[in-house]
Specification:
Layout (H helix, E strand, L loop, with lengths): L5 H17 L3 E7 L6 E3 L5 E7 L9 E7 L2 H4 L5 E4 L3 E2 L6 E2 L10 E9 L12 E5 L12 E3 L12 E8 L4 E11 L1 E6 L2 E2 L16 E7 L7 E9 L1 H4 L16 E10 L4 E5 L5 E3 L3 E5 L3 E5 L18 E5 L7 E3 L5 E7 L3 E4 L5 E17 L6 E7 L1 E2 L5 E2 L9 E5 L6 E3 L6 E9 L8 E8 L5 E5 L2 H17 E2 L1 E2 L12 H14 L3 H14 L26 H13 L2 H22 L33 H22 L3 H22 L11 H9 L8 H15 L9 H10 L3 H9 L7 H5 L33 H9 L2 E3 L8 E4 L9 E7 L4 E9 L2 E8 L4 E7 L7 E3 L9 E2 L3 E6 L2 E8 L5
Parallel strand pairs: 2-9, 15-23, 21-30, 38-42
Antiparallel strand pairs: 1-3, 3-7, 4-5, 4-6, 4-8, 8-9, 10-22, 11-16, 11-19, 12-15, 12-17, 13-14, 13-16, 17-18, 19-22, 20-21, 24-33, 25-26, 26-31, 26-32, 26-33, 27-30, 27-32, 28-29, 34-39, 35-36, 37-38, 39-40, 40-41, 41-46, 42-45, 43-46, 44-45
């Protein structure tokens, strides 16, 4: 299992043990809005979820009871509960909405749940959990925005800001919260210690429409005399952003908004907020830019500035800034943190004589270096993803991003430098001005703190490395937003990349709140006519409206709904989803074909191409792609409307779907079933989106299969690649899907693996077979082609959702051995608990082990099995009636762990 927290894992083991002894269910993993004990949320009716723990076969919940109170002791006092559901007959254990009295700003609610199982046996009450509200009204912010007074304007980067204020707390403190945000990225300190462990706060949003603030419990950090201090750096707000050399896209003035709300034991409340009394200056952070890196001059760091008694007379008074507060929202996404540390595996002296350190893994983050020397000495660190074919440090693909950190020593002993306000994408570090040992240089892995939920492994180590590359590509590019790449002058939220990868992402990690946050920015940046911008947050002046990119508005909410059973995200995003479909309807017009040559589309971006002058096979007409996605997104809006009870709109979009499908079939299919764009991508789209005329299914499948066989490799790009193997499997051609998966030569998924890749590449030929590397737009760390991961989980291992029962309430365990694999294993922590689907073939016999969590059911398919030839542990003879199907044996099972063994037919 992929549970990160050892305490939770130990509790689950203990619960299962006691359950087996006493036949009593228990409750674990209490969450509120996908978080454990969240502080500072602004959801009016937060949703509560839990895991049922019960070792009994077919265990399921038949009822629950939730109680909420203002304190832990009051939970057990019925009259002091602020809300109680009473015993509710229901099997629902995810996203149960709180329906008690509205909570005030800063108010904390404690909650417990107990459940009844299939025998009507109740559990004990769970351990208490809580959630705490943030600031729900603009008036809750008495603090003022402040900025450095008289800062000069500059076309290039300026030093970061330093802010401080001393204050006293002369009464006994009951609790204290710090609420903070900035224009720029900030770090706050209390009495010399950093507040919290989050990085790059307040995050990347559409700043003038949605600006996040963070909430910190600082009760234990306060004394009688206190100093609050903060650094604010350029970040995404004022730094360089995009590939056009623009700086200050959102504004040219950094600013800070912060307040400490202190509640004293006697009931009094005091607010210490940013105002005109604060002092400001600059210091050691001479330059902090996400693309270009950080320059830190330790000689200029004001000694003791974060502590009481610092003489700030040389600092200036702050200027109060006139910035509205009505766009402030609580930060309910995933915090960015330093997750892992990596020690270099090798020190390399390149042919050019440069000293380079190899981490062995392409990561995103920064480097920590331990140095010593004289005051004024400098150490420079540069970052690269690869070495070129001669073995030299390669940075041409970074384009204008300098990716350089400089530390100027203060002298006097050992010093440690770790940048605070920049990040890089790198495997290799070039160090100049100092020669550290491997123990003096550390790679710090930074990304949104996603809980790992899934893993796939099999008998082929190259495919296992591919899975590792997919997961690393996701970690490296999920840094507050889903970036396209983490290393060059880009690192923005391309909608197309996020769209095609969304289901793979949800298998690997818990991304429910990550996507919820990002989709809110997509919606606020969406134009009134429904057009979705190419990147979110939009930093490209409202450019957008491209098929497969704009469809992130419909596909990603649907992926979240399927993965987590989250109906609310459909409700909250419905206007955005519908807006995008209406934009496409306007573009398509009365013939239902989106083929306006004036509209820009990215098409099947970066599809394989050849230098052969007679080559044709990868260029798919953009209007075909556009119309296919028009149909698909309309189908998702239709389904969403039906789920949300919008019956009339569901019927309207069902009718629209019929018109689009008929138009697509008239325009793009010949009578023999050939598509006018005779490409793998065109066939994959038509098959996956159900656009093929029923009477032509066999012919279309044959055309598709023949094209794959003709080339012997994939020819697809960002649009076609995620659908390629699954569409081949859909027409019964697993042989071709596995052929493409197993191919090691260029172009293929495994070709980069054979070249030593540790992440997913942007291009099939990011590094050519002769070792040459494309300069310019070329990344060794994209994730779009990693969407093959969805097929590995859902088809090879056979773990897939049931659209009729989303969130794994019911799911399918339907493996498909092939490609010479002798085993495959998928493990996944669903919102109900751990799921496992693991098969092994040896000596003509297949063993299939499955785990189904309590309160769920699964349809299990045993490929190639006849019901009478299966041995099951535990014995299911008296409880399950397996059915013979064309694919094998099928049965529906409740919770439990089962092992099936049977002889495979000789043909397998």
């Amino acid at each position: 299992m992929q549970i990160r927290h050892a305490a939770l894992f130990s509790f689950l083991l203990f619960s299962l043990f006691t359950t087996a002894l006493f036949a009593q269910p228990s409750v674990a993993n209490l969450r509120c809005e996908y978080h454990t004990d969240p502080v500072g949320i602004d959801v009016d009716a937060p949703r509560l979820s839990w895991w049922m723990v019960d070792a009994a076969t077919d265990a399921h919940q038949t009822a629950y009871e939730i109680r909420v109170a203002k304190s832990t002791p009051n939970l057990s006092k019925t009259k002091k509960n602020t809300w109680s559901t009473g015993k509710v007959t229901s099997d629902k254990s995810t996203n149960v909405a709180y329906a008690g009295p509205a909570l005030a700003s800063g108010e904390r609610a404690y909650w417990q749940v107990r459940i009844w199982n299939q025998d009507d046996t109740p559990s004990e009450w769970s351990a208490p959990a809580f959630w705490e509200m943030g600031l729900t009204e603009t008036s809750d912010w008495p603090a003022a925005w402040i900025t450095l007074a008289n800062e000069p304007t500059s076309p290039t980067s300026l030093p970061s800001h330093y802010y401080r204020k001393e204050f006293s707390a002369k009464k006994k403190i009951r609790s204290a919260r710090l609420y903070a945000t900035s224009h720029g990225i900030y770090e706050c300190y209390l009495n010399g210690k950093k507040v919290g462990d989050q990085l790059f706060t307040p995050g990347f949003t559409s700043y003038h429409k949605r600006l996040q603030y963070q909430t910190y419990d600082v009760t234990a950090m306060l004394g009688t005399q206190n100093t609050i201090a903060a650094n604010v750096a350029d970040g995404w707000y004022r730094g360089y952003l995009g590939w056009d050399g623009k700086r200050g896209y959102y504004g040219d003035k950094l600013a800070l908004l912060a307040q400490i709300v202190i509640e004293y034991e006697n009931g009094d409340t005091e607010v210490i907020g940013t105002d005109a009394s604060w002092r400001a200056g600059t210091g050691a952070f001479r330059l902090s830019d996400i693309y270009n890196g950080e320059r830190y001059d330790a000689r200029k760091e004001p000694t003791g500035w974060k502590m009481n008694g610092f003489d700030d007379a040389a600092w200036s008074k702050v200027a109060v800034a006139d910035i509205p507060k009505d766009q402030l929202v609580a930060s309910n996404g995933l915090p960015v943190r330093a997750i892992e540390e990596i020690t270099p595996i090798e020190i390399i002296v390149t042919p050019k004589g440069e000293q380079v350190y190899d981490l062995g893994q392409n990561i995103v983050g920064r480097a920590r270096i331990v140095v010593n020397g004289n005051a004024g000495d400098s150490v420079t660190l540069k970052f690269a993803e690869v070495l070129d074919k001669e073995g030299n440090f390669f940075t041409e693909n970074l384009r204008a991003a300098e990716a350089t950190d400089v530390y100027v020593l203060k002298g006097g002993g050992e010093e440690v430098f770790e940048p605070r306000f920049t990040f890089h994408g790198f495997r290799f570090i070039k160090v100049m001005g100092f020669k550290p040992t491997v123990d003096q240089l550390t790679g710090i892995v930074i990304h949104s703190d996603m809980e790992p939920t899934g893993d796939f492994s099999c008998s082929d180590e190259l495919i296992n490395q591919l899975q590792s590359n997919i997961q690393w590509g996701q970690k490296d590019n999920f840094l507050d937003i889903p970036t396209d790449c983490p290393q060059r002058d880009e690192r923005v939220g391309w909608t197309g990349d996020a769209q095609v990868f969304s289901m793979t992402a949800a298998y690997n990690y818990d991304v429910a709140s990550f996507y919820t946050k990002w989709l809110k920015d997509l919606a606020v940046d969406q134009l009134e006519n429904g057009m979705v911008t190419h990147v979110v947050p939009d930093m490209w002046d409202e450019k957008g409206g491209a098929t497969a990119w704009g469809d992130a508005a419909t596909v990603i909410p649907w992926s979240v709904y399927q993965s987590y059973g989250d109906e609310r995200i459909l409700a909250e995003q419905y206007a955005s989803m519908k807006g995008w479909v209406e934009f496409m309807r306007m573009k398509a017009g009365e013939d239902f074909l989106w083929n306006n040559n004036k509209d820009w589309h990215w098409g099947d971006w970066l599809a394989f191409h050849s230098e052969k002058p007679d080559y044709a096979g990868s260029v798919t007409e953009k209007d075909l792609i556009a119309t296919a996605y028009y149909y698909y997104s309309t189908s998702l809006v239709r389904q969403s409307a039906a789920i949300l009870g919008k019956t009339a709109e569901a019927e309207e979009y069902a009718e629209l779907m019929e018109h689009i499908k008929a138009a697509f079939q008239r325009e793009y299919f010949t009578r023999s079933g050939r598509l006018v764009s005779h490409t793998q991508t065109a066939y994959a789209l038509a098959i996956t989106f159900d656009l093929v005329p029923e009477e032509l299914l066999d012919e279309v499948g044959e055309y598709f299969a023949e094209d794959v066989k003709k080339f012997g490799h994939l020819t697809t790009g960002f649009v076609g690649t995620p659908l390629l193997c699954s569409s081949l499997s859909k027409i019964g051609r697993d042989d071709l899907a596995f052929m493409l998966l197993n191919r090691k030569e260029y172009p293929s998924w495994l070709y980069p693996v054979t070249q030593g890749a540790t992440t997913i590449w942007e291009r099939w030929d990011t590094q050519k077979p002769d070792g040459s590397i494309i300069a310019g737009m070329n990344s060794f760390n994209h994730y779009a082609y990693g969407a093959i991961g969805e097929w590995l989980y859902t088809h090879v291992a056979g773990l897939r959702t049931d659209p009729e029962h989303p969130g794994y309430k019911h799911f399918f365990l339907d493996p498909h051995p092939g490609g010479g694999l002798t085993n495959a294993n998928a493990e996944f922590d669903s919102v109900y608990g751990p799921i496992k689907s693991a098969w092994t073939i040896a000596d003509g016999e297949m063993t299939y082990e499955v785990s189904i969590p309590p309160n769920t059911t699964a349809t299990v398919v045993l490929p190639g099995a006849s019901p009478e030839g299966v041995t099951a542990t535990p014995n299911l003879a008296n409880t399950v009636n397996p059915a013979a199907t064309a694919d094998g044996t099928e049965m529906t099972l409740g919770a439990g762990t089962y092992t099936f063994t049977y002889a495979l037919p000789a043909s397998r």
